[in-house]
Amino acid sequence: xxxxxxxxxxxxYGGMGHFHGGQMQRIDGIELCGVFDIDPAQQADAExxxxxxxxxxxxxxxxxxxxxxxxATPNDVHKEIAIDAMxxxxxxxxxxxxxxxxxxxxxxxAASERTGKLFTVHQNRRFDGDYLLARxxxxxxxxxxxxxxxxxxxxxxxxxxxxxxxxxxxxxxxxDWGVHMLDQMLYFMRGTKLETVYSVMxxxxxxxxxxxxxxxxxxxxGVEWIIEIQTxxxxxxxxxxxLGTNGSLIIEDWDMNGRIVTVTDTTKNDSLPVVAGAGxxxxxxxxxxxxxxxxxxxxxxxxxxxxxxxxxxxxxLNGETDILVTHDQQRLLVHxxxxxxxxxxxxxxxxL
Length: 352
Ligand SMILES: NC(=O)c1ccc[n+]([C@@H]2O[C@H](COP(=O)([O-])OP(=O)(O)OC[C@H]3O[C@@H](n4cnc5c(N)ncnc54)[C@H](O)[C@@H]3O)[C@@H](O)[C@H]2O)c1
Known about the structure:
Layout: E1 6-11, H1 15-26, E2 30-36, H2 40-48, H3 57-61, E3 68-71, H4 78-87, E4 91-94, H5 102-115, E5 119-121, H6 129-140, E6 146-154, H7 174-188, E7 194-202, E8 212-219, E9 224-230, E10 240-244, E11 247-251, E12 258-263, E13 274-276, E14 279-281, E15 292-295, H8 308-317, H9 327-346, E16 350-351
Parallel strand pairs: 1-2, 1-3, 3-4, 4-5, 6-9
Antiparallel strand pairs: 6-10, 7-8, 7-16, 8-9, 10-11, 11-12, 12-15, 13-14
Helix pairs in contact: 4-5, 5-9, 7-9
Nicotinamide-adenine-dinucleotide (NAD) binds next to α1.
């Protein structure tokens, strides 16, 4: 017997709304019933693309063909729309950040429990190739015990114009790329307690919202994970820089250029002094090839996976598997975000 194809719809047909519409049209097991956007220009664009634009949110939510609604509006209205959709009997995928504070998230989770509807979040960057590759290298043990991970993205155009520049809509970089990079960290480190965060934020191009931040996260097993997002950088640092007891990893960019360098003989640590600026140093003398080994990255084996998020959603809605992004994962992420804001405001280390 063939399986029923799920009905999907999108609320908020902007940049990400178009992405979700495309995913529902492309991936087997779900079909796009239509979209709704408060902007008439986006409604017209949907119709131009051959996609039904519902005349109102209510009309969309009352269509019995729709099983799941994806919310791709600005961040401050995810909560209201998600609760409304669940109360109309729809399963919900919210774009990230799920919402702006822990209390709001609890209201959303309560609606899910009250209505029995699935409620999850689009944490698609768990499937980025560079992240899958960094995870793979760390998990193989080739670096020895990993003790420091640095995860960065850097642009040079400030915050994109529009609602992302405005605090009331949940603007700023912590709610933007920050959510993705924190989710990547928490998902990789799950099972190990995050003990403290210390953060600083920048306001170089925007006084209202953070246009960048650095956060140092310390885990119970001693691992330090640094996340940095900046938007005024005209020279970029690598996407990933990972240190282990036995080697280092660098992934330069989203094309996954980079390398692994491991040490082959730690007994040969001595060096002759080299000139360094106005002095000499043995400590910082570069290693010779004789005690290191350079490995190419198996980047081709870790392409970005465009399908698995939706396939998991479809299988979970069909009762065949568990949903990937759980309520508890979202609770932790929202608490960590709150702690990062608090640390930046107070200048203090925040204990979780
Ligand atoms: N997961 C990802 O990779 C990713 C990437 C980009 C954006 N996002 C998230 O997606 C969401 C949307 O971002 P975007 O870049 O598409 O923004 P956008 O500005 O391009 O689109 C938002 C759309 O929502 C519409 N809208 C606003 N309020 C609405 C309402 N009450 N009801 C219906 N429509 C409404 C706007 O008219 C606009 O067309 C944000 O939460 C953002 O953080 C996620």
